[in-house]
Amino acid sequence: MSPKSEAPSIQEQQHLSVDGHAREERPSKLPRNLSASTLKKLSKFSVAAATATSSVKFVPAQVPRKRRLQTLAVATWSVMIVITSCTWIFLWSIPPLWPFLTIYLVWALFIDRAPERGGRATGWMRHARFWRYFADYYPASCEAELPPDRPYVFGYHPHGAGALATFGTEATGFSKAFPGLKPHLLTLTTNFQMPFYRDILLAMGICSVSKKSCSSILKSGPGNAITIVVGGAAESLSARPGTADLTLRKRLGFIKLAIQYGADLVPVFSFGENDIYQQMPNEKGTTVYALQRKFQAIFGFTLPLFHGRGLLNYNFGLMPYRRRIIAVVGKPIHVKQHDKPDLEEVMEVQQRYIAELTRIWDTYKDEFAKTRVRELRFVD
């Protein structure tokens, strides 16, 4: 007798079709139950996400329209280089515009000398409502008495955005505070090699910080004034809330320039300027500091690793915090005109300049720098 065939098992029956024929086995579904380790990982991820979300302070829905416009103005100016660059690239995608763009580029780079000859400031640009919102975001203000019967060299400290609001626009009422003066905020020459962006700067009266530009403005006659952010990129690396470390001791060029043209030196200290951003640790000797100084040596400027707030939150992003900035304009320091001042003469004027900056700090620190963590320091 042939052996009796065994009945298929339950598992085998699941693999037979209705008519008893074998069918292709399908992969089983994933288990519905998660392992303990997987649940633990998901739990940690959820907690981290919840913590990050709870730590971000979002902007409430009910914010006055004026404050929103102030934030928008600051955000727009913060990315103005990006906006103008993208516009320039986009226009090159339209072939009929190529001849006009080429002519403009040649004119801007090789013909136009406005950045070195006092710019071409226009009243409507300096008085635009946009700048009023920009200045009110902080807000900024100034005070002093300066007769328009001589040229001036303003030294702005510390490095920051307040210089633009005070000297690059009429948002803080510069012309009303100093009638008869023609301000020229100075910036890097490379900024005037950027299409469209350069024209915005020139319309604001902003010029190149080159020696030729400074000379052209100062010899134009009484009432002309230049503003130099003396500390420059190096000073921005030491900018932290509650501090006032000024890069000044080795900066003698602007003093020599003032003596050569018989221009009064006017120190300007901007309280609150270092409070609008947080910067990651980059003390001297660290790798971050070395890389930033190397970048500065190559490109002429540096990039502080900072953070501030965002458009829709108060503690995460690249926009500056809304902090009060007060630009205090000091008493003018009279200098005797000399074509070739020696080092001793320059150092003597520098000591008077530092003394006036110190006077400004000591006079107003308890009013405008209540949260300071240390006193004013002069470095490098």
UniProtKB/TrEMBL annotation:
Q: Which UniProt keywords apply?
A: Acyltransferase, Endoplasmic reticulum, Glycerol metabolism, Lipid biosynthesis, Lipid metabolism, Membrane, Transferase, Transmembrane, Transmembrane helix
This protein's major location comes to endoplasmic reticulum
Entry keyword annotation includes Iron? no
Identify the enzyme class: transferase
- Protein's UniProt keywords contain Mitochondrion: no
GO cellular component terms given for this protein: endoplasmic reticulum membrane
- What organism is listed for this UniProt entry? Coprinellus micaceus
User: Which protein is depicted?
Assistant: Diacylglycerol O-acyltransferase
What lineage, starting at the top, does this entry show?
A: Eukaryota, Fungi, Dikarya, Basidiomycota, Agaricomycotina
Q: Which family does it belong to?
A: Belongs to the diacylglycerol acyltransferase family.
